[in-house]
Design goal:
There is one protein chain. This protein is an all-alpha fold. 84% of the residues lie in helices and 0% in strands. It has 6 helices and no strands. Helix 2 crosses helix 5 and helix 5 runs antiparallel to helix 6.
Length: 118
């Protein structure tokens, strides 16, 4: 059942974002920022954790999950280090994921020879 919940929740998030892109004049970058901020706000309100427990990977993989990761990192860093944690927490919490994305993206570019659009 976990796989089914992850599939339909992740699909619903992606479908809603696609509808938002198709029906509004919002640019993809702004929609991505909206998703990250929404994940952080849902984490702040305490709504994201029960949602993620229900949806599993369907909630943690999209950008909503990244926003929640940033929020949790900032919250923990502020508790440990005080005010400076506001600036350090998001970096510490998301460093592994961002590093992996950069490394795997670079490796894929070596294998597939990316080309510029004309």
């Amino acid at each position: 059942m976990e796989y089914i919940n992850a599939f339909w929740v992740g699909g619903a998030i992606c479908a809603l974002v696609q509808i938002l892109l198709d029906r509004t004049k919002l640019m993809p970058g702004r929609v991505m920022v909206l998703l990250v901020c929404t994940g952080a706000v849902l984490g702040f309100l305490g709504i994201y954790q029960p949602f993620a427990e229900f949806a599993g990977g369907g909630a943690s993989v999209p950008l909503l999950g990244f926003g929640n990761t940033l929020w949790n990192g900032v919250k923990e860093a502020v508790e440990e280090e005080g005010f400076i944690g506001i600036f350090l927490g998001g970096f510490k919490a998301s460093a592994a994921g961002i590093s992996a994305a950069l490394i795997f993206g670079y490796m894929a570019s070596l294998v597939f020879e990316p080309k510029m659009k004309k």
